[in-house]
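Here is one chain, start to finish.
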Amino acid sequence: MSSPPKPIDSAESQLTELERRHRRFVWPAVVVFVGGYLTTMAVVAYRPHAMAAAVFGRLNVGYLLVLGNFALTFLVAIAYRWYAERRLDPQAQRVRAAMAGRSPEGVL
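Its structure:
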């Protein structure tokens, strides 16, 4: 027969879940952000004449790509905040609760 889970075991499993949830968002977000940045840099390096193509008045493709990078930065930050509030913060509360139930001499 197995004994009931100890508080430290519960805290470790809750912390593992928190780390898994964090990685689930962060790595795809990094890939999207770095991909967008590298795409802009590739266009700047290999297609400079395309950057100068006018889109509307003095607004050209280069400006749009740079503005797109700024927008992507804010979108990733907003998406992370939304994800953290809904998926990470509740899990962090569970980790804290599990750790509060463990013996004071135990250290994770």
